[in-house]
Amino acid sequence: MCNLELFKIDLKALTEDVTPLQWELDDQFFSQLEGAQLQRGSLHVSGSIRKAVGFFELQLHSEGTVEVPCDRCLDMMSQPIEADLHLTVKLGAEYTEDEEVITVDEARPVLDTAWLIYESIALAVPIRHVHQPGDCNVAMSEKLQELSTARSSDADAEEAIDPRWAALKNLKI
Question: Which tens digit of pLDDT belongs to each residue from 149-160?
Answer without folding.
Answer: 776 665 555 556
